[in-house]
Amino acid sequence: MALLEANNITKTFGGLTAVNDVTLTIDEGRIVSVIGPNGAGKTTFFNILTGIYKPDKGTITFGDKPIAGLKSNDIAALGMRRTFQNIRLFNNMTVLENVLVGMHTHLRVPFWHIIFKLPTVQREERKARERAREHLNYVGLDDKREELAKNLPYGDQRRLEIARALAGEPRLILLDEPTAGMNPNETAAATTLIRRLRDDLQLTVVLIEHDMRLVMAISERITVLDYGTKIAEGDAHTIRTNPRVIEAYLGKGAADAA
């Protein structure tokens, strides 16, 4: 069953068309990758799905709700969360506090309860901290919960971003370059974690990734963008042998040789 459907999405900036008439369907419970050379429009497409940009043309449905043009926080509240290519943590907050921030769309205590410090505030805060620790334990960071985020090793910062995304209790999680800058051991651990998100938590996962070994190993469906246009879609074998994909990455000579 389709969890997300984006139809004929177009976004221009001045005279540049960053995303050109892209249609993408994400089935529930799948691991899907969106790939392409630098400047292909991948992150712009993610930004449109998550409400950072409004599409100039096209429709997006998440579950049974149209979301094109909604604000990012409203889309997040519906169950779509993401990480970013450039890590966006609150560096001077603790690891635990970063995850608590990710829960803001699910906290239900009225504002006046907070003003008067009623017992309901203390109860919800305690439950939130317990749940945050569960997310940290899941990604292997609970023992570092009191450390400042800026003091974590790079790979741990990436895992903290995922824990913060999980704090929003998502149905769909979008990972933008989740293994960028990682060493081989960190990449292997991240690959295992991505699989667990789907297998353990029944999440739908969409990732932008340049590590082709990871993409081919983990993805059940791959969509390829080039200059903002979708040029191919299919399973790993289909994408690996597609002449247009080979040309986009390696040039026309390589495509002709293939």
UniProtKB/TrEMBL annotation:
GO biological process terms on file: D-alanine transmembrane transport; L-alanine transport; L-isoleucine import across plasma membrane; L-valine import across plasma membrane
UniProt-recorded Gene Ontology molecular function terms: ATP binding; ATP hydrolysis activity; L-isoleucine transmembrane transporter activity; L-phenylalanine transmembrane transporter activity; L-valine transmembrane transporter activity
InterPro entries in alphabetical order: AAA+_ATPase, ABC_AA/LPS_Transport, ABC_transporter-like_ATP-bd, BCA_ABC_TP_C, P-loop_NTPase
Metal-binding among keywords: no
PROSITE patterns: ABC_TRANSPORTER_2 (PS50893)
Record-linked Pfam families: ABC_tran, BCA_ABC_TP_C
Keywords: ATP-binding, Nucleotide-binding, Transport
Gene3D superfamilies: P-loop containing nucleotide triphosphate hydrolases
GO cellular component: plasma membrane
Keyword set includes Transferase: no
Residue ranges of domain ABC transporter in the record: 4-252
Protein name as it appears in the record: ABC transporter ATP-binding protein
UniProt organism field: Candidatus Viridilinea mediisalina
Phylogenetic classification of the source organism: Bacteria, Bacillati, Chloroflexota, Chloroflexia, Chloroflexales
